[in-house]
Every structure is written in structure tokens, then in C-alpha cells.
Amino acid sequence: MGKIIAIANQKGGVGKTTTTINLAASLAALEFRTLIIDADPQANATSGLGFNPKEVENSIYECMVDNIRPRDVIIETDFPNLDLLPSHIDLVGAEIEMINLPKREEKMKESLMDVKDMYDFIIIDCSPSLGLIVINSLTAADSVIVPVQCEYFALEGLGKLLNTIKIIQQRLNPALTIEGILLTMYDLRVRLSNQVVHEVTTHFRNMVFQTLIPRNIRLSESPSYGVPAIAQDAESKGAISYLNLAREILIKNGKLVLEN
């Protein structure tokens, strides 16, 4: 059974979609079958992989609301070992339509049972909120990665998110763990970036990934080409950082052994 990892932070602009696309592409490049689930109505993960959300016939929305099987909706990308369960704007209405459904928080979990054995990793790109779709994502997930940008308001709202995760652990998904806190948009030259790294690692210690994701032009521009950074420039700092993150996660999960 594949491991489901949600990428979540209710704060916008922290690198959730960038992390989803590039971490998934890195895992796929390391020959692990990987599925991206775009659970954000903005559908940036869908467009970031070269698909037009307006042309998507079915999406995660139909899987959750209309009980369409995910394996009938999944799209193969141009990258070996990497598939996509897309999103479109209709996902905005899903929270309203699901409000009176029984076990509404478990709709995504129920859907993903259809495909969990097809992949090594399933990466969910969550929207910047703490709404019902995000709660569905965290209920379906085995673990969560929390991206935190190396900027002034880095810790703003982080406590609220961690409290939400705690509530979900208590009420909906006792097996949910925190895969790690990921520091993004790091700039070695900026003193504030280094202060944030020090503050977060001091406070959260072993919860923080060793890999830092730098500010990098390839990470910024690759979505406009509809490709992950590793496909545009495998030697770029951004691509290498996400490969290192993928290896760190694989080692943590016992799927990769460190060479002496």
C-alpha cells in the first residue's frame, strides 16, 4: 500500500504546490510510482504539470461528490512513474455539497482506497485553508508535510495548523503523523532567512527536515512550462534540493539505505 502524504499549511505562498510537484517528480525520478492529487480549487498543480484545468473532464471533485472511481480519472503525465488526479474550479462547491453527507470528512479517504495499492507514494496538494477539503486530505493521509517559508511571518498560523492536526489525530485519523516541517524560500545571503531557520529548528527540533529549499528561478518558472524543475534543469539548486528531500523521506521511511 502506498504512503499518502498531504502538503498542508493554511497560509498561502509558502510553497505547497511547488513542493507537491517537485517532491513527487523527484520520487518518480528515483523510480517510485507516484500520484499527485490536486485538492486545491485553484488547480495550480494541474496546470503546473501542463494540463489545462478548464479541459479536465473529471477531477477529485467528482470522486468525492459523485463517487467516480479515481482510477477512471487519473491522468498519465509525460514523466515516467508520475500520474495526476486533477482538480478544477468545481472543487470550490464540494464543501457545500458535502456538508450534509454522512462521514463527510472521510470522502477522500474512501475514494483513495481504490488506488492506494497502485502507487508507492500519493502526494496531496492542499488548498491554503483549514476547510472541509483540507480536513478530508488530512483524514486520508498517513502523514503531513508542513512547508514554512523563511520569512518574517514564518510561524504565523503554524500553531493553529498543528492544533488542527492534533484534533484530526484525536477524532478522525489517529494514525496521522507529521512527516516533517519543510523550510522553503531560503536565501543564505539574507540574515532573516538564517534567523528563521534557527528559530524553527530550535523550537521544533527533529520535526524539521534537514533539507532546505532555496529561492530558485527554476522553481519559480518551471510551472509556466508545465514541467517540474527536474525536467527543466536537473542541475539547478531547486531540483537538487527536492531530490535531496525525496531521499531524506525515503530514508526516513526505510525505502532507501544510506551507503557507507
What does this molecule look like?
This protein has 260 residues and is α/β, with parallel strands linked by helices. It has 11 helices and 7 strands. The chain has helices at residues 16-29, 44-48, 60-65, 91-98, 107-112, 132-140, 158-171, 191-204, 217-221, 229-232, 237-252, and strands spanning 3-7, 34-39, 75-76, 82-85, 121-126, 143-149, 177-184. The protein has a 7-stranded mixed β-sheet with strand order 3-4-2-5-1-6-7, with helices on both faces. Strand 3 and strand 4 form a beta hairpin. Helix 1 (16-29) packs across helix 11. The protein is globular and about 50 Å long. The model has no long low-confidence stretch (mean pLDDT 93).
Structural topology:
Elements: E1 3-7, H1 16-29, E2 34-39, H2 44-48, H3 60-65, E3 75-76, E4 82-85, H4 91-98, H5 107-112, E5 121-126, H6 132-140, E6 143-149, H7 158-171, E7 177-184, H8 191-204, H9 217-221, H10 229-232, H11 237-252
Parallel strand pairs: 1-5, 1-6, 2-4, 2-5, 6-7
Antiparallel strand pairs: 3-4
Helix pairs in contact: 1-11
Brief summary of the model shown:
39% of the residues lie in helices and 15% in strands.
Which stretches of 5+ consecutive residues score pLDDT under 50?
none
Count every helix, treating DSSP H or I runs of 4 or more residues as helices: 11
Beta strand %? 5-15%
Biggest sheet, strands in spatial order? 3-4-2-5-1-6-7
Head-to-tail CA distance between termini: 29 Å
The structure class reads alpha/beta
Shape: globular
Radius of gyration from CA coordinates: 17 Å
What is the number of strand segments?
A: 7
Mean pLDDT: 93
How would you spell out the order of helices and strands? EHEHHEEHHEHEHEHHHH
Helix share of residues? 25-40%
Report the sheet with the most strands, covering strand number, pairing sense and barrel closure.
7 strands, mixed
